[in-house]
Fold this protein.
Amino acid sequence: MSLAYGKGRNAVLPPSVNRILLVKNLPFKITSEEMYDLFGKYGGIRQIRIGTEQKTRGTAYVVYEDIYDAKEACDHLQGFNVMGRYLVVLYFQTNYKSKRPDLPKEEERVEQLRRQFQSMGNDEENEFD
């Protein structure tokens, strides 16, 4: 058997692969036991967190003991039909940070654009006089 990308336990995995899966489009009535049955087929699970709030319903985090088990589950359960809904299974991105602009720099940039626009407007007015 070839140990090419994605094959076997000794394969080199891309950096985006980790042992935490984000599962979307879950049926709202799915139970923890059903989640353990479904995802437990692919390896040992450390934790499953199912969203219960209005904003998080239909989503869950599945944490595997082993990264290769998480990859196997992600590969096999992506698009899997559960109670009439097709699962969306992604790797959780731990290094994702929302980019918040630096407010003073952004204000300075806006002010420069405002001055530039005003000077352009004055030049155009003089052209047509």
Summary: The chain has three helices and six strands.
